[in-house]
Amino acid sequence: MAETRDQLTMYTTTWCGYCRRLKAQMQRENIPFVEVDIEHDPAAAAFVERANGGNQTVPTLAFPDGTVATNPPIALVRQRMA
């Protein structure tokens, strides 16, 4: 499941503190999303690398409009999903 265009997808790892923080913020804001652990999904890891200049930087969010943001503030997520 590398890329879905009909929903917000959050690419993450279990050990990432930034991921946990953004996930909690999105849950508080009732922003629906699908979480994909790049350590268990090679296609997702490859997508994150392409989106981040060869780096597996998380959290990386893929928005329904096809845009991508790496470690965005919750205000940006809220704006993009409005």
Entry keywords:
single chain, 82 residues, alpha+beta, Glutaredoxin, 4-stranded mixed sheet, 4 strands, 37% helix, globular
Give the SSE order as H and E letters.
EHEHEEH
Oligomeric grouping of the chains = single chain
Number of beta strands: 4
Q: How much β-strand is present in the residues? A: 15-25%
Rg (C-alpha, Å): 11 Å
In CATH, the homologous superfamily goes by the name Glutaredoxin
Describe the structure in brief:
By secondary structure, the chain is α+β, with helices and mostly antiparallel strands. It has 3 helices and 4 strands.
Description of the structure:
- The protein is of the alpha+beta class and 82 residues long.
- It has a single domain, classed as Glutaredoxin.
- The chain contains three helices and four strands.
- A four-stranded mixed beta sheet has the order 2-1-3-4, covered by helices on one side.
- Strand 1, helix 1 and strand 2 form a beta-alpha-beta unit.
- The radius of gyration is 11 Å and the shape is globular.
- The termini are far apart.
